Every structure is written in structure tokens, then in C-alpha cells.
Predict the 3D structure of the following.
Amino acid sequence: CWLYFFTVPVSSDQIEQLHRRFKQLSGDQPTIRKENFNNVPDLELNPIRSKIVRAFFDNRNLRKGSSGLADEINFEDFLTIMSYFRPIDTTMDEEQVQLCRKEKLRFLFHMYDSDSDGRITLEEYRNVVEELLSGNPHIEKESARSIADGAMMEAASVCVGQMEPDQVYEGITFDDFLKIWQGIDIETKMHVRFLNM
Amino acid sequence: MSGRGAAGSGRGLLLALLPALCALPRVRGVEEGPGSAHGHSQGFQVVTFEWLHVQDPYIIALWILVASLAKIGFHLSHKVTSVVPESALLIVLGLVLGGIVWAADHIASFTLTPTVFFFYLLPPIVLDAGYFMPNRLFFGNLGTILLYAVVGTVWNAATTGLSLYGVFLSGLMGDLNVGLLDFLLFGSLIAAVDPVAVLAVFEEVHVNEVLFIIVFGESLLNDAVTVVSGCPEGSGAWHGASLCISRPLATTFPASQRGTRPSPASSVLLPSRQPPVSPAVRPPRRLSALPPGSQSRTPLWAQTPCRPFPSPRREQPSALGLSSGGAARVRQGPWSWDTRPPLLPGSQGGRTLGVVLQTWVLNRYRMVQLEIIDQVVMSYGGLRGAVAFALVVLLDEKKVKERDLFVSTTIIVVFFTVIFQGLTIKPLVQWLKVKRSEHREPKLNEKLHGRAFDHILSAIEDISGQIGHNYLRDKWSNFDRKFLSKILMRRSAQKSRDRILNVFHELNLKDAISYVAEGERRGSLAFIRSPSTDNMVNVDFSTPRPSTVEASVSYLLRENVSAVCLDMQSLEQRRRSIRDTEDMVTHHTLQQYLYKPRQEYKHLYSRHELTPNEDEKQDKEIFHRTMRKRLESFKSAKLGVNPNKKAAKLYKRERAQKRRNSSIPNGILPLESPMNNLTIKEKDLELSDPEEAPDYGAEVGGGIEFLASITQDTTATDSPSGIDNPVFSPDEDLSILSRVPPWLSPGETVVPSQRARVQIPCSPGNFRRLAPFRLSSKSVDSFLQADGPEEQPHATLPESTHM
């Protein structure tokens, strides 16, 4: 599906718009670094800010490797990341729709799996949940942890079903992740409107 | 709900009786004030009927009472309401009552004045709708809704009016003294889709949320449009754009342009305007929905009118506020059939056409497309209601000559749409296979990821410098959280606002319930038969006669597995044949698993289905029990202390033969404290437990020490003879009681059975599988650490949180 992102032409207006924004963020430099994102004021309020910024530099999202972070990204990379949020075109056939869906979910997966080992372990999950809930000042850390544990259990029961007592569930793989999301429509959740063509 | 309703109607009855009582024994002779002088010449009347004196409040009270009773009756008879929409039933009720009234005294019944309508009837409806408005759906589809409401209504009004005018011009209607303006006015009245009727019908039908919110939102907002479009036309004068344009600037009360007339016709649909009898005590998290909801929804003319009512003629309400449409119609002048045939299809056709056109436009911009079926439902679901009737009744006879005709026609249209369309829409929806609202079980992962998505999208919007939905929503929720919630909500309520927590909590409950179900299903044999590790009290069970124990317990369980209550008589008899300790085991085991598990989840917009009261307590107790077990299993692993006997209090005291004294706090785990907040705050439970206003924040560390100390205390006083004796002598009981933290009410204590205590079955979830990740040994760590018993009574994971 990522091929699709490049083959189907985006409207030049939008590219122009994004380019302007890119220049604004980078201060007229050809590349952006992590620090440049500090210029976006409202991003401060976002609880998972760090993860999102990191996602921009994640080599897996940029298709430059299977792990690690890039130091800086150029406009093309910027567009690549943005293209994850394009709405799924209704004219595509079923298979392509599935591919697109998978790509979007993969983006989310990469965000959770911070050590790039292909699994979301309990610790990583806890980390994510704590960050997510950090916006609410009334939720203590313990609750966040319990929620993460509960979610992990839920995921385990989905992915592996009944487990033997000595079986150990190591983490959520990408396939498990897909299984969790099976049947749930993410179309409305993972697109940004202005990227409509 | 019925309890509350009964109480409410009791009060209503009292209220109704009170004026009557006051009126009856009034002695004329002692009447003070003007006009009493003329009583002397006629002698001394001891008892008089002061009907006129009390009739206003009396009628109102009686009317409210009757309507409330009717509403309760409708809810109790669920079979009827599932077929016939509530509005239709209420119309029928109005007809019946009005007929009675009219037949009784042929006097003009209660007249609907604008004052009554807009001041007393409309605000509760408005506020109620605003309170229950599903926020996110509404604002997410706001563009669509506005389009339908504004453009659609204007279109409907225009097409209806023009088509009627066309028919009139063609002569089919006969001789009527109407002009184009009148027709347009009428069109604008009729075009208003009524939210109450829509809601009543759609609640039964359960279409998918998008469709529902569009129709509902449209019906909410188009009242305003109706009035605006009717306003300049009806008044015959153009008051300029200042009229009714913006909500806070409602300058002119449109109906004030049209006087009232002491017309006998009144709204048959008044009862349908009744707010629900039991507005559920929703948790305060909805409170923040109130400002945006009610703001966006309040029609223009629900505001205080600027101009005073021009001709405040005092009406003479003489009976209940319900009058029959038949009575009204009889009084109407022309009974012409000419207008009706073209009107109904005209208005419906206009609406359909409008819907189709607008949808075509909208689908170019919407993400989630509206399909043909949705459009059909939307056009068919346009039920007219009381608003149309009220507006038409308020027409001035002088300005609109054929007012009676319009009134009767409106009545016909309203009847038709509500009754016929209301009745048939459900089969239609089923036949068309409209996408129903998916009632999925709440999944924690879904919620979490959904939340993550929201944040990601906001971030993307921020980064790319666009202002989009997510940005606005984020801004609002930040503002809400920082300022509004702090002012308007309690701290505990603020905690529980988070949807994720609610889902988590629901899942925990579900967990607990299915845990109990599992235990029941297995007949607790697993509990009994499994060898224990420590407690010597258990030794008795591994001795011979397991078959007896087994037989008796399983027999008893089989006997009672489907019954919620336990017949203590048979248990008593059986008890005599069992040894004491086993006896107690039985007793406790059965007491443990008395509750029948059930799963009920609230539907999104069924406001009237409240789970009955008895399950709330069950829920809570089950939850506490489960949590307590988990703590104890954890504790036994960590502290090496066997959670031994703790006293319990029997819930169903009247059936129990022995009394236990309550002392120990239930398993209010410190780590569960925030979630326990939620236990209490959860919708079902809030009603029954207001006194547990929690203040758990401080007790994080204190709770477990408290428990530990109590446990160690009780260990000393344990007698090996079993729980037969009250564990604590009365003195100790008191001392224990005095140590109960103030935030606990003794009524909630739970004891696990002896069996369960000793050998803690793992809660469904078999946490050991996550063993590699549980590194912390802090006592305040997650409950997943509970890993005491090595043996697994549950070999397989019960299907508790299966997806």
C-alpha cells in the first residue's frame, strides 16, 4: 500500500501547503530535526508527544531500516509519514484496502514497540498507557499500570486464547495486533481530513 | 425505576389531593376577604366546593400524575412498547381522556397557551435532550446535521407550501380563503420534525448511531428554523433580521404576534411532552455535556420573550390538560376532505426529495457515506409532533382565516406520522436491513488505541498546521479538564470521567461475575477437592468421606444453581447430616455462589432501561469479593500469613439461621482504591451507595497495613473448631469494628468461604503466564501479582474476557 501512496498523485495544493509548513518548521533548512518540533506550541499538551515525534524519525516508518532513528528528515520523508494518514480511497479494491489498513496499523504498532524487537512487551505497553493517561491528573500510576496489565491480558486472550499454565506470553506481535483490530473500522480514526484529495 | 416512579406518583397524588382537601371543608362563614359578605343572607354553608379556587394547581397536578402513571405503565409493559411507539400510545391516552372530559361537561378543556408550552413544557424536554446528547457523535456530524436542519427544513417548508398552493390553484381544494402566504406558513409549521417522537421511535429501533444522530440532531435544530421561517410570514410584517436570528438575541416571541383564542382545541400531544419520569441519575461525567448540548439545542423561542404577551386573556381550564383531537375536530368548522389527500403525500414527498438531494451533496464531503437505506430511513423517520401542533394552534384567527382547517389538518398529519409511520418504521428497518448499532462488548484495547489515535491525529494536525476536528476537540477537552471540571465536578467524579477507566472497571466486574459463574458451573468441586497447602482446617476435607461432602455440596448446588435465593429450610435439614466443618463449608460455599451471574449492558441511547436494583448490590459484592480474594492470595504469598477467618455478615439475613458479625473491611485494596472509586461511582451502584463518598486517596499504603494487622489479629483468635463460633466475641467485635476505616460501611463486608480463603483459586486470567514481567514486589503493585496457590483449579482460562 505504501506504493500507492506515491503512485497516486496528491493534489499539488496540498503538497504546496505541506511544503510551506515544512519550511516553517525547519526554519528554511532542508531537513528537520527533533528539536524543530518544539516549535509547534500545541504539541506540548499532547500526552504522547514524545512518541509521536519519535515516530517521525523512526526508520521503520521511513522505510530506511528495521530499527533505529534517523537524525533528520527531509521533505520527502515528511510526506511519507504524512501519507500514513491519508483516507482510504473508496475506489480501491478490497485487497488494497486491506493493505492500506495494515500499513496504518503498522504505524501504530511501531509507535508502541519502542525497542523495535517486533513485540510489544508488557513494559512497553505499560509505558504507553501511562503516557496516554498522564493527561488526566487524577489517575494514579498504579491504575494506569493495572489498566495496562488488563489490556495485555485481554490481548493475550484474543491472540492466544486459552493458555496453559506454564505458557508465557511474551508480547504482542504484529499479527496479534492485527487480530485485535480485526473487524473494527479504523477508517474514521486514522485519517486527517485535510489530506483529502 | 418503578420504585421511584411510584414514589413520584405518590407524591403527585398527595399533591393532587391536597388542594382538594383544602377546598372541601372550607367553611364559608369564616371566609375572610372581599366577597364574603354575600354569604350571610343565604344561611350558613358548612361545606362548599371551591373548585375554581383550586382548579389550576389541581388540574396540573392531576395531569402530571396521570401522565406519569401512564408512562410508568408503558415502561412496564415492554411488549406493547416494542411494537407501538410511545408517542402513539400517549396520543391514544390523550384521546381517551379528552373524550371523557368532553363527554363529561362539554366545557372547553385546558388550553395550550404559549406561556404554558414554552415555559413549562419545553425546558424540561430541552434540558433532558441536551443532557443525554451523545456529544462526540453530535459534534462529529454537526455539519451534516446543520445542513439537514437548516437547508432541509427550509426546503421542506417551501416544497410543502408551494405544492399545496399549486393544488389549491388547480381548484381541487374547493373554495378556501387562503393565500400563498398562508400556505407557506403552514408548510413551515408542518416541516418541523419532532425530536421527541423521533427519539421514542428510534430508541425502539436501534439503528446505527450515525443515522440516529443525524435524524435526532436534525429534529432538534429544525425547530428553530421552523419558527424563524414562520415568524416573519405569520406576523405579516417584517421585523428585520434582528428577529430570532441568534439564540441569545431572541428578541421577539413569534407567537406573540399571533394572539391566542380561547379555543377549545388543545394539544393532544401534551402527554408526549412529559419528561421521562425517572431521569436516571447519571454520573456527573455527563455534566460537561450539558452546556454544549443544551446550548446547541435550545430553540430560539424557548428564551424569555422580550415582548410581553399582548392579550393575556385568562383561560378557563376546567379539566385535565388532555383534550381529545376528536373533541377539537368536532368543534372545527369545515370538515373538508379536500386538503388532506394532497397534503400528506405532498409533505412526505417533499421531505424525501430534500433528503435525497442533500445526501448527494453531503456524500461528496463525508467520510462515512450515507447510503440509500439510510436516506430512506431518514425520510421516513420524519415524524411530526407536538411542536407543529402547538404552533398551528397559536395561529391567529384574524390573520389566517382558515385556521381551523389548518389545525385539523395538522392533527391529521401528526396522527398519521406518529402512529402509522411510528408503527411501521421498525419492521421497515428490519426489512431493509439497516445497519444496526453494533453492540460490541467494550474492549480495553480498543479504547486505549482509540485514545492513542486521537492524540496522534491531533498531533498530526498540529504539526501540519491545520485546524481540524481533533484540534478543536482537544482544545475543548483541555479547557474542560482544566477549568470546568474543577469547578463543576467532585474530585472523585473527575477521576471517573475517563472512558478508559470505565471500560476497565466494567471489564473487572465482568471478570468477577464470570469468575463466580465459573465457580458455580463447576459446582465448586474443584475448590473442595484440591489439596491445600497450609491450613490445617483444611485437613478435614481431605479426609475420607469426600463423597459425602461432594454429594451433599454438589447436590445442593445442583438444587440451587439456578435459584438466586437459597431455601434455608432444606439446607438446614441437610446440615444436620453433615459434619460441622463441612457444614460450614457448605454454607459458605453456597453463600458465596448464591448470585446468579448475569450480563446486562446498557445500550447507547436507551435511557429508560435501568437495571433493577437487586443486581447492583450483587455486582458490588461480587466485585469486592473477587478483589478481596486476589489480595489475599497475594498476601498469603507475600506475607506468609494465611488469610484466616474473618467474620462475615449475611446478606440475606432473614433466611439465615446464624448471624455473623461484620467487622473486617472487605477487600478494598489500596491499589484498587482508584478503581474502587469507580466501583462506587459506576452507574448502577451510585444509586445505592451514596454514603461511600470515598476518600481513598490517602489510604494507599494504610489500607494494606490495616488489613495485615487485622489478619494477624484474627489469627490469634482463631479456634480450630471452625467458623462455627462467631469468630469474634462481642468485645473483640467492637474493637475490630472501631477500627474499621470510616469510609466503609459494615454492610458491605464480604467473607470468602473457608475453602476459598485457604486455597485461593486464581481469578480468571491466570496471571502466571505473565510471570516474566512481574518484577516488582511492592505491595501496591498490580493485582496480577497474585500468584499464591500452585495448584490450578482452573486448568483453562474461563471465557471471561474473550473477544
The domain at 2-188 of chain A is CATH 1.10.238.10 (Recoverin; domain 1). The two ends of chain A are 17 Å apart (CA to CA). Confidence is low (pLDDT under 50) at residues 1-9 of chain A.
